[in-house]
Amino acid sequence: MRIVFLGTAASLPSKNRGLACLGVRFLGEVVLFDCPEGTQQAMMKAKLSYGKISNIFISHWHEDHFLGLLGLIQTQSLNERTEPLHIWGPKMDTKYLKLFKKIITGKKQTYPIEIHEVKVGKLYEKGEFTVSAVKLKHTVPSFGYILIEKLPSKFNKKKAIKLGVPEGPMFKQLQSGKAVKVKGKTIKPEQVLKEIGREKKLCYFVDTIPLEENIKHIKDADILIHEVTFSELEEERAKEMLHSTGKGVAKLAKKANVKRLIGTHISARFKDTKELVKEMSSVFPNSHIAKDLEEVQL
Ligand SMILES: [Zn+2]
Ligand SMILES: [Zn+2]
């Protein structure tokens, strides 16, 4: 899984930060989380191909999170894309929906676009990968997205041999979760598999307060990418605007026992983010603020 921060700014872009957006590449396709102005250029710099985008998951319909959609849609028609593109988000405002419908049914459109209204739960599945949505709390309906890659359980070869299973096809059967019979005795996969249910988990939560009720969903995540729009000095303002502070997010990461916390959606007011990282790290040491075009492997 290749994860690229295509932008990391809140509300408006700055010289060093484009608007917050994440690109993830897996199994030869790209999914985008949000698609603000500037996404196309950031994708070019990151060497992520537009043609490979299968799904775009929009957190909410605030302009700093989706205004890049129309340009991206048009570019791909100019590129004569034929593959369908799926766009997910909360229920769209009728004025936007009208505009979208007009564009995607226009004569120049070379490929189908499906717009899906997001509901909590699993949205998309491909191979071992799934994307699910959870509710966030912001000034308009907003969703957080969780990308999970299921990993195969580990096979305990020593134990299998001890139980009398001969090396060969029976090993494969057990590894794929099927029981085998050895000399009239049934050997179940769970007897020879370790770490059943292993997975890699990436959470992308922008434009929300740190929401305790989501701890069960982000629990033990490998990476929690969370908006950090304000510092703890502006806690009242963060509460009022339904955004997060560095400390608030760090507390959430700690309670959810995530492995790594990466802050994004950074206000242009922060000339540098040292203080913000310090604030987060005082509660949750493995904290970091993303930079544009920064890459993470998972
Ligand atoms: Zn925003
Ligand atoms: Zn917003």
Task: Give a short synopsis of this structure.
It is built from eleven helices and 18 strands.
Task: Please describe what this structure looks like.
The structure is a single chain. This protein is of the alpha/beta class and 298 residues long. It folds into 2 domains: 2-151 and 197-297, Ribonuclease Z/Hydroxyacylglutathione hydrolase-like (Metallo-beta-lactamase, Chain A); 154-194, no CATH class. 27% of the residues lie in helices and 29% in strands. The protein is built from 11 helices and 18 strands. The chain has helices spanning 39-46, 63-66, 69-78, 94-104, 157-162, 169-175, 189-192, 215-218, 235-241, 246-255, 274-281; strands spanning 2-7, 21-26, 29-33, 53-57, 85-89, 113-117, 121-126, 129-135, 143-150, 154-155, 180-182, 185-187, 193-194, 199-205, 223-227, 261-264, 287-289, 295-297. The strands form 4 sheets. Strands 6-5-4-3-2-1-18 form a 7-stranded mixed β-sheet. A hairpin with a 2-residue loop joins β2 (21-26) and β3. α10 (246-255) runs parallel beside α11. Bound molecules: zinc ion (2 copies). One zinc ion binds next to loops.
Low-pLDDT residue spans: none
Ends distance? 5 Å
Find the structural class using helix and strand composition: alpha/beta
Named at the architecture level, the CATH assignment of the largest domain is: 4-Layer Sandwich
**Domains (count):** 2
Strand count:
18
Ligand species: zinc ion
Backbone CA Rg: 22 Å
**What string gives the helices and strands in order?**
EEEHEHHEHEEEEEHHEEHEEHEHHEHEE
What is the H level of CATH, i.e. the homologous superfamily of the largest domain? Ribonuclease Z/Hydroxyacylglutathione hydrolase-like
* Total helical elements: 11
Helical content stands at 25-40%
Query: Whole-number average pLDDT?
Result: 95
- Main beta sheet: 7 strands, mixed
